[in-house]
Amino acid sequence: VQDNITYTLNVEDITSGCSYQDQIDLVTFENFSIDAGADQAFCADENAMLDAFSDSDTPLSWQWNNSDLLSDPTLPNPMLIVNENADFIVVATDSNGCTQSDTTSVSFIASPEVNLPAADTICQGEQLVLNAGNSGAQYDWNTNENTQSISVDSAGIYTGTVTKSAGCSSSDQTELFLTEFLEIELGQDIK
To answer: What is the pLDDT of residues 43-77, one digit of tens each?
Structure first.
């Protein structure tokens, strides 16, 4: 309790000389603050959690809006059960009935699509160009190359990982087979 003040009102009827008095006790409780956390961006396939906190010394009850998107809207840190862009408002109430609220926004970023052929065959001496797409992203190939496209000429499995904003990444791989040259002998020239 911060303050406990009693206010008294005295009223006198100057015609009759009667006086009236009433009192009210005003109790002011200590204020607290809450923070719903910073706005956040998550990868679309990532588990996301809201994380509100308070400076209150007393227990608080919590209530988030958009409760159908949350595991438990009465927790300060519920998990999102539906990965959907949304604004969230949290209201915290202390044991005196005092409330505070704050907002945060959550957005989900689609992971990049990487579509390499499952398998391919080339003739010995040829090259196959593998393109991970997603121009402007960060690339990581199991060949230690970091470009959008690579040229390969050896049999094996090639994996490309693409990373976009917020660290969202996807991978795909292709298996490359080589066809060896066939030596064909047609015999001697006939004249």
So the answer is: 988 889 999 999 998 899 999 999 999 999 999 99
State the maximum Cα–Cα separation within the chain, in Å, rounded to a whole number.
Answer: 148
Using alpha carbons only, what angle is made at residue 161 by residues 157 and 167, rounded to the nearest 5 degrees?
160
Structure-derived torsion over alpha carbons of residues 7, 8, 14, 19, reported in degrees to the nearest 10: 160
Number of Cβ within a 10 Å radius of residue 42: 19
In the chain, the amino acid numbered 58 is T
Which helix or strand (DSSP H or E) is residue 79 part of? Answer: none
User: What are 80-122's pLDDT values in tens digits?
Assistant: 998 889 999 999 999 989 999 999 999 999 889 999 999 999 9
Is pTM beyond 0.85? Reply is no
As a whole number of angstroms, the distance between CA 92 and CA 74 comes to: 9
H or E stretch covering 90: strand 86-93
Query: What are the Cα distances from residue 147, in Å, to 138, 161, 164, 173?
Result: 8, 10, 14, 15
